Amino acid sequence: MAKISPLSRFWGLLKIYKPEIRQIYFYGVLIGLVNLSLPLGIQAIISYLQTGELSSSWVILVGIVLMGIAVSGTFQVMQLRIVENIQQNIFARSSMEFAFRLPRINVQQLDKIHAPELVNRFFDTLTIQKGLPKILIDFSLASFQIIFGMLLLAIYSPYFIVLGLFLLLVLWLMVKFTGPQGLKTSISESKYKYQLVHWLEELGRTQRSFKVSSKTNFHLRKADDITLDYLKHRESHFKVLLLQFKSFVSFKVLIAAGLLILGGILVYQQQLNIGQFVAAEIVIILIINSVEKLLRVLDSIYDVLTAFDKIGFVTDMNLDQNGGKKTVTPEQASTIALTKVNFSYPDNKGKVLKDLTLSIPSQSRVIFRGKSGGGKSTLLQVIAGILPVSSGDILLNGVPYHNYDKESFNSNVGLVFESNQIFEGTIKENITLGREVDENYFKEILDALEISDYIGQQADGVETLMDSGGRRTPRSIGQKILIARAICHQPGLLLLENPLQNIPKEETHAIIDYLTDPKHNWTLVVIADDDYWVEKSTQVITL
Ligand SMILES: Nc1ncnc2c1ncn2[C@@H]1O[C@H](COP(=O)(O)OP(=O)(O)OP(=O)(O)O)[C@@H](O)[C@H]1O
Fold it and tell me: Which end of the chain is more exposed for a tag (fewer CB within 10 A), N or C?
C-alpha cells in the first residue's frame, strides 16, 4: 500500500471539520478587517487633532476604535469555542479509533511489533490537539492580517502592491525550500523519542531483573545510546528551524526596510499626509508581527504533521478481513478439517506446518503433543483463525474459514493462550469480557474451576479489581480465570494451550474431568503433556 503523506492525512482531517473551519476562517476574515479599524481610526484621530479641535467626531472615532478592539476580541472567543469543539472531537475520535482497531489488527502485522508500544502513538493525538488552534487560528489570523495590511497599504500607494507581492513570493519560496526538510528531520527525531520510551517501558516491565544487576549500567548505556541518537536528530531539526528563523529575520528586515523607505519617500513627496503615514506605520508593525507569528506556527505545523505520520503508522495497519457472510450458530459443536495445509511465518523460510491433513470431529477431545518447536501453538492459532494458512484448505463444519463472518466465527471460539492475558479490570470483567453470561452457568464454572472460594474471600467478590497481568493474584487463580473466560460463552470450539501449567497437580484432574465432560457441546483441542489429558481424550495428534 502506498504510504500516505502526513500532509494528505492533515487535509483528510480538515475535511471532516470543513463547516467548523469555514466558520473559523469567516471570523478570521472579520477579525482581519476589524483590526484595520485601529490604524484607520488613528489616522482619522490624528487628522482631527491636527485641526486643533476636540469635536464630538473625535469622541465617536475613539469609540469606533475601541469597539473594533472589543469586536475583534469577541470573534476570537468564538473561534476558540469552535477550535475547542474540534479538539474534543479529535480526542474522542482517536480514542475510539485505537480501541476499535487494536483487537482487529492482523496478528502477522504485529509479529515484530510490541503492541503496547504501538499504543504510545496515541499521545500524538494530544500533539495534534495542541497544534491545531495554532494552525487554524494563529496561522489564519496572521495570514489575513498580512493580506489585509498589504491591501490597505496598496490604497495609500500602488507601489506597496508590488512590494507586497514580492515579499509574499520570498515567503512562499522560503517555506517551499525548507519545509520538506523540516518535516523529514522532525519525523526522524520523533522516531528516537518513541524508541526511548519503549526502552524505558521495557525497563519498567523487567524492573526486578535490572534491580539485581544494576551494576552493569547496561540499562543506562542503552538509554544513553538512544538519547544520543535522539539529540543528533533533534539538532538536525533545529538547524532547519534556525535556517528558517534566520531567513524570516532577513525577511522581516526586508519588509520593514521596504515599507519604511517607501512610506518615507511618499511622505516626502507629499503623496501621504502625516496621519496616513502613522496609519501605514501601524499596519507595517501589524504585518511584521504577523510574519513572526507565522514563523512560530511553522514549528507547530511540523509537530502536527509528524504526529499524523506516527498515528498513521497504527491506523494504516491491516485489519482482519471480514471474510464472508456465513454465520456460526452459537454453541454449535464444531468439526474441523484440514487438507494439505502449509504454513510458514513471513521471515522464517522453513514451513512450520507442512502438507498437514487432519480431521477433528464434532465434540471430540483432541490433544496436541510433540517436541518443542514442532508447531503445536502455530496449529492452534491456525485452527482459531488467527493465522491464515499459506496454502491448503481449512474447513469449519464443511465450510471454508474465509466464508465465515469474522465476528460470528470468533464468537464461537474459546481460547486460552500461554501468554498472560489478564488486564486491569474486575474479576467479572476479566472472565466475561462484557458478554452476557447465564448466572447459573457462571456459578457452575466458578465452582468447577474451584475459584468460588477465592472469590468469596475477596472483599468485593467478583467485582474485585485485578491489576494488569494479575500481578497480585495467585498464578493458579489467574490461569483459572482465563479458562473461565474461554468457556463462559459456551463456545463450539475450545482451544487451550497448556491451560493447567500453574495449577497444583491435585486440582487438575477435576478440571480436566469438567472440560472433557461429554455434557459440553464443544469440540476441545488442547496442547498438553499431562497423561490424564491423554486418558480423557478421544484423539492424540503428535506434531
Ligand atoms: N512469530 C513467529 N515468527 C517466526 N517464527 C516463529 C514465530 N512463532 C513461532 N515461530 C517458529 O515456528 C516454529 C513452531 O513454533 P510453535 O510455537 O508453533 O511450536 P510449539 O510446538 O508450540 O513449541 P513449544 O512447545 O516450545 O511452545 C518454531 O521453530 C518457532 O521458532
Answer: N
